[in-house]
Amino acid sequence: MLWQMALIILAYFIAWYIVSVVIKNASIIDIGWGLGFVIVAWVGFLQNITWASALVTALVSLWGLRLAYHIFKRNHGQPEDYRYANFRKVWGKNYYVRAFFQLFMFQGLMMLIISLGFIHVNSTGSIVNLPLAIIGALVWLIGYIFEVVGDAQLRKFVSNPDNKGKILDTGLWRYTRHPNYFGEAVLWWGIFIIALGAGAPWYTVLSPLTINILVRYVSGVPMLEKRLAQRKEFAEYMENTSVFIPWFSKSDSMTKNIFLVLQFVFLAGFLAFLVAIIYGVTARDFWAEGRVLVGIYWGRFTLYDIYLAFAVFYLWIVYREKSLLSSIIWFFLIMLGGAMTICLYMFVALRTSDNSSVKLMLGKRWVNQNAE
Predict the structure, then answer these.
(1) Cα-atom radius of gyration of the chain, to the nearest Å?
(2) DSSP label at 80?
(3) SS3 category, 128
(4) Does residue 5 contact residue 31 with C-beta atoms inside 8 Å?
(5) Which of 48, 67, 62, 64 is nearest to 120 (CA)?
């Protein structure tokens, strides 16, 4: 299947090269980048239709189609991107030959390497380690959220005329200067972990490593940073904000950073419990193992202990929420989801507390007191 995909990618980029020559605009390849992965994924999926191949094909399609649409909207009606226009100027009479190999064929090679993980899954069509595949899907989701939210925040910021000449330093952009590139790197690690769950060989790690190197050190971060480095506002932004991996802003208070860490901890706890529950439901016998648990003394004792703790925590929820309906909903969610639901509730409570410990403890009562 790998050689077949290599030939498809070769033909695909030759076609895009011809189009770029005709319209004299090489930046259209940015649109073709995401679409190419979608085509490769679907060709493999249609040859071996299983739930495993359907999973990776769906994830690649969600990423690739969104990226292609996002870039199309951004570039439509605009002149050739400054990067490609600069190549055209610097390469001069050798532009078309160099563009064919250094832009189009190079991207084709990168696409083949980055696709190694999901090509393997589509080839085998089976998962041998379900927990690893679930973890991979959640890692993909985290990366996808970073990319989508980062792009949305930037688009909203740029569309406001009042922000002309300013630097976006809120939302995800407060913790990393490139949340969209970071998200793209992370989601490919997710696909790689799914591929490991399908028994992928060691060399498929080249997939996430390649996209990480590309966006961090080659075509993503460096080019954009070089373009913005001369602006005074960006220089100040660079001093306070991590370049790639999200980290605390140096301009934020200790309290705000503590609340941020706690949000991360409870979100991670929620995801960990979610993975465990999905695995338990899909790969274990819930009723048979449950009967064993309640059939022994320490099993029953542990359940009593845990649900007593849940009840104590729930009393705080009743106090915070004030609303009877909201309290009832959270009661059933805690009884069903246990610690997973508690982690979710704490994450939401921290997110809506405006970094105030008083508001965190009082919840809706704090809001009502201030309204009075």
Answers:
(1) 25
(2) S
(3) coil
(4) no
(5) 48
Q: How far is CA 161 from each of CA 75, 152, 264, rounded to the nearest angstrom?
A: 19, 16, 33
- Residue 357 neighbours by CB under 8 Å, 6+ apart: 255
Rounded CA separation 205/196 (Å): 9
Give the tokens for residue 259.
């609340």
Say how many CA atoms lie within 13 Å of 119 toward its Cβ.
Answer: 23
Report DSSP letters for 195-233, one per residue: HHHTT--GGGGHHHHHHHHIIIIISSHHHHHHHHTTSHH
Encode the chain (372 residues) as per-residue pLDDT tens digits: 778 889 999 999 999 999 999 988 888 898 999 999 999 999 999 999 999 999 999 999 999 999 999 888 888 878 888 888 888 888 988 989 999 999 999 999 999 999 999 999 999 988 898 889 989 999 999 999 999 999 999 999 988 888 888 888 888 999 999 999 999 999 999 999 999 999 999 999 999 999 999 999 988 888 888 888 777 788 888 888 898 989 888 877 888 888 888 998 999 899 888 888 888 888 788 788 888 888 898 888 988 888 898 889 999 998 888 788 888 998 999 888 889 999 999 999 998 888 888 888 888 877 555 544
Q: Give dist(CA 275, CA 142) in Å, integer.
A: 14
Distance CA 42, CA 357 (A): 50
**Paired tokens of 287:** 């009723």
And the tokens for 123? 């080839």
Residue 212 CB neighbours (<10 A): 19
**Count of CA atoms in the C-beta half-sphere (13 A) of 71:** 18
Please answer whether residues 184 and 93 qualify as being in contact, where contact means their C-beta atoms are separated by less than 8 angstroms: no
Give the Cα separation of 124 and 117 in Å (integer): 11
The length of the chain is 372
Structure tokens of 39?
């085509």
Cβ-based burial of 184 (10 A; exposed 0-12, middle 13-18, buried ≥19): buried
Please give the C-alpha separations between residue 32 and each of 16, 17, 274, in angstroms, as whole numbers: 7, 10, 35
Whole-model pTM?
A: 0.82
Tokens of 193: 């972990």
